[in-house]
Amino acid sequence: EIVLTQSPDFQSVTPKEKVTITCRASRSIGNGLHWYQQKPDQSPKLLIKYASQSISGVPSRFSGSGSGTDFTLTINSLEAEDAATYYCQQSVDLPMYTFGQGTKLEIK
Amino acid sequence: QVQLVESGGGVVQPGGSLRLSCAASGFTLRNYGMHWVRQAPGKGLEWLSFIRNDESDVYYRESVRGRFTVSRDNSKNTLYLQMNSLRPEDTAVYYCVKDWALAAIIFESWGQGALVTVSS
After folding, report:
1. CA distances (Å), B98 to each of A30, A48, B42, B81, in order?
2. How far apart are alpha carbons A25 and A2 in whole angstroms?
């Protein structure tokens, strides 16, 4: 099973800050890494697919990068509405498709 | 727009059974793979099962294999999850999820979730 480890687990940030969340895979997964946002009491929402590909309707301040074992989700100029838990997920390890443990972003 | 509406959740005793349904609309169900993902209270996301558009491939995570069965009826635009031999650790919100494609294993659209509570 591929383990995805996100860091940090929790981050408290101020609006307009730049935020970086990392996701490390226990073995190489190429670009089979995707990012989701889950706001309180809501279902998750797809933010980024294949490590860096944008999703229609997702604000351009969200971007992704990385390949192999190390990946990053970047939020430029954070907004209050970005308070949420963010998850990475890998789509390579059939049939154990795993998520990271989540990173909770709190807006100060 | 894509809509996924789960139903069938509730409270069940350990060892009991429950069947979840997911009504899909806004897209052609037969063209997409579908998944079930769950989230225990206060915990992270856990992928459970995948079914290809034509049911030619079905996958489960280890902890539910043999107890859960996923199926679909494309003519009724509905996905199902039959859950047997339920355990307290199966308590979670269960999400019906549309794949980005046939089997990209990218969770493009999510339902609102159905709460399943396993308790005596």
Report:
1. 23, 16, 23, 14
2. 7
CB neighbours of B17 closer than 8 A, spacing ≥ 6? Answer: B82, B83, B84, B85, B86
Residue B67: predicted pLDDT: 98
A86 CB-near residues (< 8 Å, 6+ apart): A6, A21, A35, A36, A37, A38, A47, A73, A102, A103, A105
Distance (Å) from the C-alpha of residue B46 to the closest C-alpha of chain A? 7
Q: Summarize pLDDT for B50-102 with one digit per residue, the tens.
A: 999 999 999 999 999 999 999 999 999 999 999 999 999 999 999 999 999 98
Choose the mutation target among A97, A101, A103 for the interface with B, i.e. most B CBs under 10 Å: A97
Q: In 10 A of CB A68, how many CB atoms? A: 14
Interface test with A, best of B106, B108, B112, B115 (most A CBs within 10 A): B106
pLDDT band at A94 (very low <50, low <70, confident <90, very high): confident
Burial class (CB in 10 A: 0-12, 13-18, 19+), B25: exposed
Q: What pLDDT is recorded for position A95?
A: 83
Closest chain B residue to A41, measured at CA: B112
pLDDT at A27: 97
